[in-house]
Amino acid sequence: MNKISRPKAAGNRSVDEITGSRRLRRMRKADWSRRLVQENHLTVDDLIWPIFIIDGESRREPIPAMPGVFRLTPDLAVKEAERAARLGIPALATFPNVDMKFRDQTGSHILEADNLINRVTRAIKDAVPEIGVITDVALDPFTTHGHDGILRDGIIVNDETVEQVAAAAVLQAAAGADIIAPSDMMDGRVGAIRDALDANGFSDVAIMSYATKFASAFYGPYREAIGTSGLLKGDKKTYYLDHANSDEAVREAEQDLAEGADMLMVKPGLPYLDIIRRLKDEFQMPTFAYQVSGEYSMIKAAAANGWIDGDKAMMESLLAFKRAGCDGILTYFAPQVAEMLKG
């Protein structure tokens, strides 16, 4: 058998000669040195906790598609707000699962001052005034068809929807909402909401625009959580962004800022880190990501099957948002992460 000779290194140069003595592993050699040079950090101040709410009392409903996440009655939502405050989580975002008897073609129940979302806001702000409350004015939890706007003759009508969500924003601000976060993606909604808030004495209420909400496959578990998964007729591509488009996302964000948005949001999160980076570089405005239900459930499912370390994947995914330029993250992992950071 012929003996195979060992290949010679090119020019017989040493590693120091090859690298110019720049050994990048030097600062990775120990935990203390890795911590000294870590570029991005995740803290409890980066977390916004989305919670789901239902009518009733002392009731906690599990959401099968989102292990560990529950629909909460107002009294239990208050208890979770108190828990969030103890953990140092800055804000909650509330999303209602509205009884079908209150849903119609136009989502008119959103204009009831004492609807579920407004009652929960008042209850939380009465009990935990120091925590921020973020509310959405999209109509999908209030419609019988699951769309974010008013449906007429098979079309989501823009201007009529804008008028309604602006009126709903005033009611939510009156209930105590600190931030209005319109996710419906109607043209002109941010400016209309800003005008309505200012005209009604709520100029200090901020707007977190879902500036770049993409038509995504990652929303499925959320739709189960708010009770729209079996209602949706057609899709939302006529008003959500095409997930192939990046330049269009920048234009959407630019328009919302011109109309008065105080903050930008990218939704979903991990598949759109490039969008986060572009918006942060372009506008230098407070920029947030929503780690949506599908992202959460994928990590939970893979961890439950023993395929990944769930805690490590959770923390790595959240730190990726910080690396991309996020000032904060809406995540269902918020209380778990806050506990880990505190511990």
Q: How does this structure look, described?
A:
By secondary structure, the protein is an alpha/beta fold. It has one domain (38-342): Aldolase class I (TIM Barrel), CATH 3.20.20.70. The chain contains 12 helices and 12 strands. It has an 8-stranded parallel barrel, surrounded by 9 helices. It has a two-stranded antiparallel sheet with strand order 6-7. Helix 6 packs parallel to helix 8 (247-259). The protein is globular. The N and C termini lie far apart (62 Å). The mean pLDDT is 95.
SSE order and pairing:
Blueprint: H1 15-19, H2 31-36, E1 47-53, E2 60-62, E3 70-72, H3 74-87, E4 91-96, H4 116-127, E5 132-135, E6 150-152, E7 155-157, H5 158-175, E8 179-180, H6 189-199, E9 206-213, H7 220-226, H8 247-259, E10 263-267, H9 273-283, E11 287-291, H10 293-304, H11 310-324, E12 328-331, H12 334-342
Parallel strand pairs: 1-3, 1-4, 1-12, 4-5, 5-8, 8-9, 9-10, 10-11, 11-12
Antiparallel strand pairs: 2-3, 6-7
Helix pairs in contact: 3-4, 5-6, 6-8, 8-9, 10-11
Integer average pLDDT:
95
User: SSE string, helix = H, strand = E?
Assistant: HHEEEHEHEEEHEHEHHEHEHHEH
Number of helices, counting only DSSP H or I runs of 4 residues or more:
12
Assembly state of the chains shown:
single chain
Level-2 CATH architecture: Alpha-Beta Barrel
Which structural class do the helices and strands define?
A: alpha/beta
Q: Strand tally, please? A: 12
CATH topology: TIM Barrel
Shape call: globular
Q: What is the topology, as strand order, of the major beta sheet? A: 1-4-5-8-9-10-11-12
> DSSP strand (E) fraction?
15-25%
Major sheet size, sense and barrel closure:
8 strands, parallel, barrel
Given as residue ranges, the uncertain stretches (5+ residues, pLDDT < 50) are none
